[in-house]
Design brief:
The protein has a 6-stranded mixed β-sheet, with helices on both faces. By secondary structure, the chain is α+β, with helices and mostly antiparallel strands. Bound molecules: manganese (II) ion. InterPro entries: Creatin/AminoP/Spt16_N, Creatinase/aminopeptidase-like, Creatinase_N, Pept_M24, Peptidase_M24B, Peptidase_M24B_aminopep-P_CS.
Length: about 375
């Protein structure tokens, strides 16, 4: 599996006018080799014919045994210095680097690599591995289904336990505990619980504020299973809510369902975004939907493709998209409803359909 992924990267090098590629992003390292150290704990150097994983002694024992076929392991604390020596040995003269590289390291490569010979150059490569990661294989889709399922089951288990007077933080901690009890490895971000006027903060972190009758509460959560994450949002009501809040909830729900209904292989990310945005704009809340409709999910909580107003990304079978329209009225109320959708050859599979989108009211 890893050897095939590395081969796919190598096949694409010529398109970027490079014959070597230094991979430094932690999720990309994991995708290509299974290396789990993370960004800053090792690098992968892909040359015309050879590949080296360069890391330090903390990972040596494990990766002596779990090295993908055809990859050599080099142990050092000086990843970048050694990578430059190996690049020379691999006869790389145009070396690609990932744009997330810290400037300090870019500067070192720029100084060191250009000296290899007169033609040597380092070249920024935008999102080559990220682009390959967008379409998931069967094993990745299976992990994404498991991640969604434990999250769905835990949320449904939690709902009847909620009541007015609980704090946002108590709800976040409760959900984290229920999902982990079902086997999730960790949360992929601090669980968001934003109630009442705080609901208008799209990424409001959970606080000690109590949820009160008359409020809507938005819960946004994602958990890793087998290295792949879910990303789900639901908004529920506490007691009786005002008419405008109820109206906004229904608009967001309609926008979510409309965007999901148009998903199929071959559509553009922009068309899906438009489907949601049109509903919200027509209802008079265009300005209050101030983020994109969705994004890819996989090893990372946010990855390609973009489901946004200005996305060139084409949607293909095997991608996992979030669909998460929202309306945020400052100092009043916020609603977001987010599902995780696998794009299939003839439509889609909604991994999070198990949590109702009818407005849930707790007391
Ligand atoms: Mn999301």
């Amino acid at each position: 599996m890893y050897s095939e992924r590395i081969a796919r990267v190598r096949k694409n090098l010529a398109a970027f006018n490079i014959n070597g590629f230094l991979i430094t992003d932690g999720d990309n390292l994991k995708y290509l080799t299974g290396f789990y150290g993370g960004t800053g704990d090792g690098v992968l150097l892909i040359g015309p014919d050879q590949t080296a994983l360069i890391t330090d002694a903390r990972y040596e024992t494990d990766f002596r045994d779990h090295l993908p076929e055809g990859v050599e392991l080099l142990i050092t604390r000086d990843y970048y210095g050694v990578a430059m020596l190996v690049a020379k040995r691999y006869k790389i003269n145009n070396l690609g680097f990932e744009e997330s590289l810290p400037f300090r390291i870019f500067d070192f490569l720029d100084e060191t690599f250009e000296g290899v010979d007169a033609d040597s150059d380092i070249v920024p490569v935008p999102e080559l591995v990220g682009w390959l990661r967008q379409v998931k294989d069967a094993n990745e889709l299976a992990a994404l289904r498991r991640a969604a399922q434990v999250s769905v089951d835990a949320y449904n288990e939690m709902l009847p336990m909620l009541h007015a007077g609980m704090t946002e933080r108590e709800i976040a901690n409760l959900l984290d505990r229920l999902v982990k009890a079902r086997g999730a490895e960790k949360a992929s971000f601090d669980t968001i619980v934003a109630s009442g006027v705080r609901g208008a903060l799209p990424h409001g972190e959970a606080t000690d504020k109590k949820i009160m009758p008359g409020e809507l509460v938005t819960v946004d959560f994602g958990y890793f299973v087998d290295g792949y994450t879910s990303d789900i949002t639901r908004t529920f009501a506490v007691g009786q809510i005002d008419d405008e809040s109820r109206k906004i909830y229904d608009i967001v729900k309609t926008a979510n369902e409309k965007a999901i209904s148009v998903i199929k292989a071959g559509i553009s990310g922009t068309s899906i975004d438009e489907a949601a945005r049109e509903i919200i704009a027509d209802a008079g809340y265009g300005k209050e939907f101030n983020h994109s409709t969705g994004h890819g999910v996989g090893l990372a909580i946010h990855e390609g493709p973009a489901v946004s107003a200005n996305s060139d990304d084409q949607i293909e079978a095997g991608m996992l998209l979030t669909i998460e329209p929202g309306i945020y009225v400052p100092n009043h109320v916020g609603v977001r409803i987010e599902d995780d959708i696998i794009v299939t050859a003839d439509g889609f599979e909604n991994l999070t359909a198990g949590i109702t989108k009818d407005l849930v009211v707790i007391n």
